[in-house]
Amino acid sequence: MEKNAALISISVAVVFCCLLTFPTASAFDHCNLIDDCNACLRNYSECAWCADPEWEHPPCFVADAWYLNNATCSMLTNFESTVTVTKSYELNDTNQVTPTLFKINLRAKQPVSQIIKVRPAANYPIDSYYLMDFSYSMKDDLENLKLLAGNLTEEFKKVSEDFTIGFGTFIDKNISPYSYADPIRVKNPCYTDEKDILTGETLSSCPASYSFKNEMPLESSLEKFKKTLDELKVSSNIDFPEGGFEALLQVASCYREIGFREKSRKIVIYASDAGIHIAGDGKLAGLVTPNDGTCKVDKKGKYTDAEIQDYPTIEQVNQMLIRNNIIPIFAIEQDYVELYRQLSDHMTQLSDVGLLSPDSSNIVDLVRDALYRITSTISLVILDDLGYTIEIEPMCDERVPNGCTNVKQGATVDFKVTFTLEKCSPDDPAMRVIPIIIPGFDTVFATITHQCDCDCYDNAPISGDDICSNHGSSQCGPCACRDPYFGDDCECSPRYQKSDELCKSPNSNMICSQQGRCECGKCVCRHPQTPPGQITPYVRYGDYCECSNYECPKGANGEICSGLGNCHCGECICDQTKFGVSKVATTEGEACDCELSTQQCFNPDPLKELRPGEDELSIVGNGALSCSGPDQASASVTSAYVDLTTEDGTAKSASSVDLSSAVRTSTVSSACL
Q1: DSSP 406
Q2: Is residue 328 within a helix (H) or strand (E), and if so which, with residue range?
Q3: What is the pLDDT of residues 579-601, one digit of tens each?
Q4: Is the pLDDT of residue 197 over 70?
Q5: Which of 344, 450, 473, 550 could share a disulfide with 351, CB 3.0–4.6 Å?
Q6: Distance between CA 406 and CA 378 in Å, rounded?
Q7: Greater confidence, 606 or 525?
Q8: 432 and 382 in contact (C-beta within 8 Å)?
Q9: Rounded to an integer, what distance in angstroms lies between the CA atom of residue 206 and that of residue 139?
């Protein structure tokens, strides 16, 4: 019987490595165009400056560019943005935020980040101030609030045992056309001609209208709160919009008079059934003085400038609430709840809006739900970025704008805050402070300085024949020539006989490759216009302007060197970033369009052993890729057919195969494209 032969096909990969030869001369990068130290460090974050006159490369260069060949500058200037924490705490029931102060030194276009940690503490103090519309339409609301005061305070106790409560009221300016002009009704807006038959007194009376009164500063006494409510009476006015936001601004600005504590969650419950007056409405009464937003209450807690200043802007109210870390809860009746929702959306800090029943009977439920939403939401607010680019990244699962929601007590949430100085300006102050407000928690302060100027200009200039041809001095690197000398080393003068021959490359009659002009025997290259959207400027360089950073093959995506390499003098130097920083090679080819990865050349089936009873088994090993040109990738594969049967007809194990018996080699084109 003829012996059965078992054949195995083994693909043996041979990897051909493309050797890249880097030019020995200084290749161009975008920093090289700059000849001033300050401009070098301001325009690009990756540029460094060498003031050493002996430095053989351009003074402005990419700090870790491959073409430097590890050259060391003895007079290097290279700033980096830094951040230093100056005040931090261990998170506990008292300190919910860390750090609370850090310093940043920014270099233009080089961002730097700081992590801010927030942890809601259990039983954290709450200051709750109830600000109520006291116009006549809110009379039944007042009566219900008197009945529900105890229940209301119980809801605060569920959040924190350490709480205070206060009470303030508002109506409107006591001046026409907002209130009555009749002198009698100015004092008693509820006046009526009907009189009591026995006493002769009018049947209805109420206090004169007013803009705001601090009826009860924040205290922990529930009994005093109830007593204050029992002693108060609503009043009346003419027009329906009220001066509520003027009152809210006074609550926010009269921080001490209201009694807010420094370490507390500050909440104002604003209850009303009407819209609001805003800046400009005061002109109807001849009030043209803008509201200055400062606290103006007398010893009795009454706002004193209601008939002097106009109403505030919405933004004034918003800014003051944020600055003093006060969170408003708007309890609004049906007709105006949508208006207040829009106002709440406009506010750049945490706020809440709830639908108030016509008699305020649901105030307890409304406050309870709002308290939960507020105490479980953490957000960061920056009032003024002062021209910086500031990005806030909440590091949590359930995100809201610049914040996180449904945060449990005791859980820590991180916020990554990144600062970038887009450009240096001579008008910039030496130092700026930016408050980062965390509504309901604390305020973090970032102190920012800039690193925009080179310190080498402060040093004395270096002069001498060996540096600037004895016709100038060197400061921060380049020569500053004395008239009438010029040139990189002040070697040229008007009497210098220009020689165009020096500007012609060997075997060429073209001056500066027709891409520049000849000055003092040296080519000064012309740079073409850079196309829109191109980050790296187009430039020509070289002793004869023979090189460029844009005349290289383009890949299938239309980008020079496929966007994966640097163009140097007509050749793509693959696997250099756009800034010339070396990376591990991943591509090769004329246009850097060939992947070096061998992943696509691996057969998914591993090497197997021949199983008993099988006469023939095709075993495919792992191949590897080599790129032999810009348009072709090929895998050089040696396929060996080996007899795997022993003399007695039994099968050999795959591990005993001798690859020296390979008999056929073939090349598989485009194996890995």
Answers
A1: S
A2: strand 326-332
A3: 344 445 567 788 888 877 666 66
A4: no
A5: 344
A6: 9
A7: 525
A8: no
A9: 12
